[in-house]
Amino acid sequence: MNDLTLNLSPKKIYGYFELVVHSALIVVFPNAVRKGCRFHLGQSIWRKFRSVDLCTHFKKKTEIGMFLTFFGLLFLNPNDVEDCFTSDLIAFQPNDDRIHVLCDYFLETYVIACKQFVSTIYLG
């Protein structure tokens, strides 16, 4: 086992949408295509829904319920997410403190924090 030499050079890596993760991946595997994991992004968003008490609204056809479908942003071209979120969606957000908290979280955690990687992170 001590003589085992591994030369890892993956072509594609799936990781969390977190700045620290993608920073490390760039250093360790600079030539690999980095892909964001939809499952973990969805889990993170769902935990935030729960923490601000929005789960009951998710499947309802209310103003809040309809707005919560904006998490389909993950299917947009990565270069379009920031403009769509800040220009289009924020203009239509319901006037509810929980929605403001959720939008601030999403903007700070995913849109702004991952902005520098937008051209290199793709959903897998």
What is the strand tally? Answer: 3
Helix coverage percent: 40-55%
Rg, rounded, reads: 17 Å
Classify the beta-strand content into a percent band. 5-15%
Notes on the structure:
It is a single chain. This protein is mainly α. It has a domain at 41-116. The protein contains 5 helices and 3 strands; from the N terminus they run E-H-E-H-H-H-H-E. It has helices spanning 19-28, 38-51, 63-67, 81-89, 97-112; strands at 12-15, 33-36, 121-123. The chain has a 3-stranded parallel β-sheet with strand order 1-2-3. The longest helix has 16 residues, at 97-112. The radius of gyration is 17 Å and the shape is elongated. The model has no long low-confidence stretch (mean pLDDT 80).
Please give a handful of descriptors for the protein shown.
124 residues, 3-stranded parallel sheet, MULE transposase domain-containing protein
Task: Give a brief rundown of this model.
This protein is mainly alpha-helical and 124 residues long.
Produce the secondary structure layout.
Layout: E1 12-15, H1 19-28, E2 33-36, H2 38-51, H3 63-67, H4 81-89, H5 97-112, E3 121-123
